[in-house]
Design goal:
There is one protein chain. The protein has 106 residues and is an alpha+beta fold. Helix content is 34%, strand content 34%. It has helices spanning 2-10, 53-66, 93-105; strands at residues 11-14, 17-25, 32-37, 40-44, 73-77, 83-89. Strands 1, 2, 3, 4, 5 and 6 form a 6-stranded mixed beta sheet that branches. Helix 1 crosses helix 3 (93-105). The longest helix has 14 residues, at 53-66. The protein starts with a helix and ends with a helix.
Amino acid sequence: AEMQEFIKQAVSEAGGELLIAVRVTPRSPRQRVEGERAGRLIVRVNAPPADGSANASVRKLLAKTFGVPQSSVRIARGETGRDKTIALEGVDREDAEAKISELSQS
């Protein structure tokens, strides 16, 4: 039930896009999407936070995770911070919630 609460908090919809609240951990040894912290999906990337390279890695990883092209993923808020809101185009909310739930349990 806690997981459902977190997902409800982290996922929303606006203007035909799916919005996901994430917390990015740059310079991580492994690139993966996992679990939750403070109501945000944790996204770990190898890239350092400089020059937008972590943002590019985040977009790439989330595109792969949700099965959409990178062009369908944009950083809606938090371009320079660790806490970001990611907008996804062409992703069904239920599918995304199921995927997040699955990732959070592994």
